[in-house]
Amino acid sequence: MDSIVVRGGKSLSGKIEIAGAKNAALTLMPATLLSDEPLTLTNTPRLSDIKTMTLLLESLGAEISSLQDGKVQTMSCHGTINTTADYDIVRKMRASNLVLGPLLAREGHAIVSLPGGCAIGARPMDIHTDGLAKMGAEIDLKDGYLHAKANGGTLKGAVIDFPFASVGATENIMMAATLAKGTTVINNAAREPEIVDLADCLRKMGAQIDGDGTSSITIQGVDRLHGATHPVVTDRIELGTYMLAPVIAGGEVECLGGRMSLVASFAEKLDQAGVLVEETTTGLKVKLKGDRPKAVDVTTEPFPGFPTDLQAQMMAMLCFADGTSVLEEKIFENRFMHAPELVRMGAEIDVQGGTATVTGVEKMKGAPVMATDLRASVSLILAGLKAEGETQVNRVYHLDRGYEDVAGKLGGVGADIERVPGS
Fold it and tell me: In degrees to the nearest 10, what's the CA dihedral of 74, 78, 82, 85?
């Protein structure tokens, strides 16, 4: 397996281009199942998860063309649709469950394997299936597959009250509701930028959606959707990740394509930590004001709160902060698996359940460490930018699911970093 080797101590300077959002692209791609006309996505990130979603959609009957070195994806579902999403593909990625709503809306039935993904805690499908059941779907679990069928062959509008603001369930119900008969209202809906991006794309395809970006979304079903071209929104998690790089390593970096509105709560914490974030005409420029960041407390929350997907990276920064910080993980359990690896590098971290107490140290030392999930892997790379000596991050196949060419992007602004092929 490949590894990433980082030699710490290099100050950073320059510009990093931020890719399109993985979580947005993985939601937008299944929307092609809702129409028999082409859907073209631009600014698509080049990631292994995108390849997995491509394989899944092709297995369902989509024809997909990749242009501009993978940054443009043109998808068409004009032929016969296979309504079974097989385990061998779905098990690789959590977002595979997002084909359930579109298949059910278009074909009136679907068989979808329960999904896989990172091992960062249970993310049950109940909230998805309960919402679809309110729209008239009968859903049974058999041998690890969800067997779904719409009563009368067509979903019907309904008022759906989520017990919590689930991003995936909001997306699945939104797509299903575009072709349902009548009006669907989603209460306690997720408000993430990826939700707004999906709504924008669906509106371009002819959907009638209001309220996206708020906790109540209304969708008026239509008879059919048509094709469209849509740019994928900037990846706010990659943006936040690279914003932390100069804070940890030193120097100043401009993240091209970044917008403050995408990372407002995150940028607020950086401000409290003594980090200067300036909005430019082309992105966000970031540098640390003093010698060390200040300790800050962080609690992960649904958007617009602090993102759980930036918690691991923030912990890497706080390992070097002046003072003691407390990070409280409220979204997923088992999401401090990177902490023991940071401790191997000299960090002082005490984890008790969903709370991690981090006492900042002035120096850490490079060490061989192991990535346990997507965000954990990049947090170890960030720590390696500052650590003395060499840090080798193993099992970086996790990294490829969410970041394109980390070594190239960080190396381009002065980091001593390389990807080493496995034997």
Answer: 20
- The burial class, CB within 10 Å (0-12 / 13-18 / 19+), for 24 is buried
pLDDT tens for each residue of 87-134: 888 888 878 899 999 999 999 999 999 875 444 344 468 999 999 999
Question: Both tokens of residue 295?
Answer: 């300790």
The amino acid sitting at 305 is: G
pLDDT tens, residue by residue, 226-249: 999 999 999 999 999 999 999 999
Q: What is the spatial distance between Cα 294 and Cα 314, in angstroms, rounded to a whole number?
A: 12
pLDDT of residue 422: 82
The CA distance from 300 to 316, in Å, is 15
Map residue 55 onto helix, strand or coil: helix
CA angle 239, 240, 245 (to 5 degrees): 95
The SS3 of residue 398 is: coil
Q: How many residues in the chain? A: 423
**In the beta sheet, which residues pair with residue 40?**
74, 229
153-167: average pLDDT: 96
CB-facing half-sphere around the CA of 97: CA atoms within 13 A: 23
**Tokens standing for residue 81:** 């649709």
The token duo for 90 is 């779905």
| CA 200 – CA 213 distance, rounded (Å) | 11
With H, G, I as helix, E, B as strand and everything else as coil, classify residue 194: helix
CA 288 and chain centroid, separation: 26
Task: Give catalytic residue positions.
Answer: 118
Q: How far is CA 348 from the centre of its chain?
A: 28
Q: Which residues, at least 6 apart from 420, have a Cβ–Cβ distance to it below 8 Å?
A: 2, 3, 4, 5, 392
